[in-house]
Amino acid sequence: MIILKNLTCHYEERVILEDISLKIQKHLTLLGANGAGKSTLAKAICGLIPYDGKIVVDDADIQELSLKERAKLLAYIPAKLEIYDAYITLFEFVLLGRFPFKKSFFDYSERDKEIAAESLEYLNISHLTNASLHSLSSGESQLALIAQALTQKSRIIIFDEPTANLDPKNSKIIAQHIKHLQKEQEILLITHDIHLAKFIDAPIGFIKKQKLHYYDRDFFEPENLSKLYEVEFDAQGLKYV
User: Fold this and answer.
1) What is the pLDDT of residues 137-151, one digit of tens each?
2) Domains recognised in the chain with CATH numbers
């Protein structure tokens, strides 16, 4: 469970999110226009940026936890894999998910390596175990990020625009994995893709003008979408006129 209490985030003098209070019981999908503050909210929940107010995850104030303690609770998956070592293998990258559990100055345990291998097998990419990161396609790179998060064994996974750089086929693969993970873990999904949001079928948090509007149902009604996005929708979706 994630609890936000009077959360405010700003960059210099510009307020991005203002006085947001919300209890996220299990799953939540965040929608909103570009620059509305969706990724800002996700990074605040992970304790990656400063904020005013309070964020509680499983009864723990996120600011009072060490980086390793946070990582055991939350895994953040960015929209794109940033390669810091182009020749690291997929397995080595995924194994880094066990870092919060690794003892200082010791190598990863055999159990750590088993967990990494299980994550690759779960996502059907074990055949790429020894492939270098720079050789992976966009879809495979996104699966690599998910595999590392699964290896981290965090109970809450935050997906930040997971299908933004993918073609329809790979978008479908990622969407199906996210849907399946809902059975086992808490999912916070950030997306611009309304079709993906509807498929995931979680409560919606829509960010607009620094505020978060919560919808447990009826979000996808054309009248509501038209009001929130300020463009015309009908039963078939967005209308270009």
Assistant:
1) 989 999 999 999 999
2) 2-238 (3.40.50.300)
